[in-house]
Amino acid sequence: MNAAARRPPIVVGVDGSEEATRAMVWAAAIADRKSVTLQLAHSLPTSWYHYSEAAPLFQAEFNEDAERTAHEILDRAALAVKSEFPEVTVLSSTHPGPAGMALTGLSRQAFMVVVGATGAGAAESRGIGSTVMRVVNHAQCPVTVFSSDAPSPVPDHRPVVVGVDGSELSSLAISAAVEFATTFDVPILAVHGWGPGHTSRHHTPSTTGNSAVVEDEQSVLMAESLAGWKETYPDLRVTTIIERSNPAELIRQYSHDAQLVVVGSHGHGRLVGALLGSTSQNLLHHLTRPLMICRRAS
Question: Domain range holding 267?
Answer without folding.
Answer: 160-294
